[in-house]
Amino acid sequence: MAFTLLSRSPRLVICALLCIFLFSEVGVPRRASALGINYGQVGNNLPSPPHVVQLLTSLRIGKVRIYDVNPQVLSAFAGTGIELIVTVPDDLVPGMAASASQALQWVTAGVRPYFPATRVTGIAVGNEVFTGDDEQLKASLVPAMRNLHAALAQLGMDTYVRVSTANSLAVLATSYPPSQGVFTQDAAPYMAQLLRFLADTSTPFWINAYPYFAYKDDPTKVSLDYALSNPYHVGAVDPYTHLQYTSMLYAQVDAVTFAAARLGYGNVPVHVSETGWPSKGDANEAGATVENARQYNRNLLMRQVSGEGTPLRPKLRLEVYLFALFNEDMKPGPTSERNYGLYQPDMSMVYNVGLNQLSTTSAASLSLATSPATRTVRC
Questions:
Q1: Could you tell me what percent of the chain has a pLDDT over 70?
Q2: Are 217 and 286 in contact (CB under 8 A)?
Q3: Which of 304, 335, 371, 334 is nearest to 34 (CA)?
Q4: Where are the annotated coiled coils located (predicted)?
């Protein structure tokens, strides 16, 4: 059930949200495993899909997101039990919005032949659409999502496959402190439509969140420890909720939750569809080093292993997809764009974050103590 608090004072809004989030599960079940990885393919030297699947299986990675419906990839994942999110490219979205039959055709041709042997659990429709310049695409996104959901229902797949879209953090006008999170004026009308659809279909809101960008843009003012999610530092305290944050990523997620709640949809869970840190960058890309990349992803992995939720939703382990599995040599843009991978195309590690340890070591032995969130509600 959605709740609307816009007519109340900001102080009462925050207190009400804290009571709801801190002392209830908000209807969201705890997941047994919440760590996934993005498997991009913008490279001319990447290993074959069967070899990629062997690597993922050896690492016990149970969730993967891809950026298309590549038949070779879908076939390679058959029988593995790995949960797979597939993607509808931006250019197909308007057609699917205008025609339910196009949405049905896409699912019938691109997903159904591989399902359920390949465990497709999600369809990402477009990528960061609401922060782009294409107004037609923005207006088409939610109608396309509705048609895709209807197609899945027609095929008896809607119980197993959820439809969402990955959003840039730039949909927020304010992200700090987290309790002041609010969507931009341009994005808010679309966000209301999107959140209504997600609530109706019990589907999470997906956000692409990169603390690296905040640090790169202002390294003299943004704490590197905070951006890297290092646990043993003071971090930041939200002056309105008094919740303590030692991770910028977790603060960004809570800001999205507060923004959604201000539109009446605080019960929609927020998952991280992309996050990562580049191991190499240009001279003007501060912080893009192997050590920082290793530390960021290691810290995130340890928080996942310990089952840590955000300070606002401490009982719910945050579901996160790391970006990315491989360095991709054909990605455009600055050097950092081609250096987010945990692995080189020859499947050697760029750096070791401990994923290989998970295949032989118990989760308990890898747990990393983190600073507990302050849970005192003072209104």
A1: 85
A2: no
A3: 304
A4: none
128 is catalytic: yes
pLDDT at 335 over 60: yes
Residue with more model confidence, 69 or 1? 69
**Per-domain boundaries in the chain:** 10-366
Question: Tokens in use for 93?
Answer: 């979205």
Active site annotation includes 328: no
Identity of the residue numbered 289: T
Instruction: Tell me the pairing of strands 83-88 and 63-65.
Output: parallel
**Angle formed at CA 287 by CA 286 and CA 289, multiple of 5 degrees:** 125
Q: Are strands 182-183 and 120-127 parallel, antiparallel or unpaired?
A: unpaired
Q: Give the Cβ contact number of residue 27 at 10 Å.
A: 11
Is the model's pLDDT at 19 over the cut of 70?
Answer: no
Contacts 24+ apart (CB under 8 A), 348-352: 350/279, 350/290, 350/293, 351/279, 351/290, 351/291, 351/293, 351/294, 352/294
DSSP-assigned states of every residue in 306-342: TT---SSSTTSPPPEEES-SB--TT--SSGGGG---S
Amino acid in the structure at residue 123: I
- Are the CB atoms for 21 and 310 separated by under 8 Å? no
Residue reference for tokens 């507990």: 372
Give me the residues paired with residue 244 across strands.
237
| List 25, 83, 135, 274, catalytic entry | 274
What pLDDT, in 10s, does the model give residues 44-98?
999 999 999 999 999 999 999 999 999 999 999 999 999 999 999 999 999 999 9
Indicate the pLDDT class of residue 356, thresholds 50, 70 and 90: confident
The CATH fold of domain 10-366 = TIM Barrel (3.20.20)
- What's 264's DSSP letter? T
